[in-house]
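General statements about sequence and structure are easier to judge against a single worked case. No coordinates are needed to read the tokens, only the vocabulary itself. The sequence in question and its structure tokens are set out directly beneath this paragraph.
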Amino acid sequence: MKREQEASHPARPHQQEGRLILSTQEALSATNAGSKEGVMQSIGAMLNKQTKEALSVEGEKKSKGPRRGDRQRRSQRKSFKQKGGQRRKKFGR
């Protein structure tokens, strides 16, 4: 098994995601699959599970909202009501 930490995907050249290189036998034994398709399915299932967990943790943080003393974030959600209705008169008209 080899790991290239500096490798990046062609569509995402600025993200240094890295690359993991496994032999066929290592991949089959690690995933308990019988074919390449089985290996790909198990990898996809694991990635789906990880992304759902990450999104649920992130969603919990967002649903709580900003803490009481966090003025900067509280000010982002305030809605300012505009004083409409009458327009300012110009020069005594």
Q: What stands out?
A: The two ends are 83 Å apart (CA to CA). The mean pLDDT is 79. Residues 5 and 17 are 7 Å apart (CA to CA). The first strand starts at residue 2 and ends at 4.
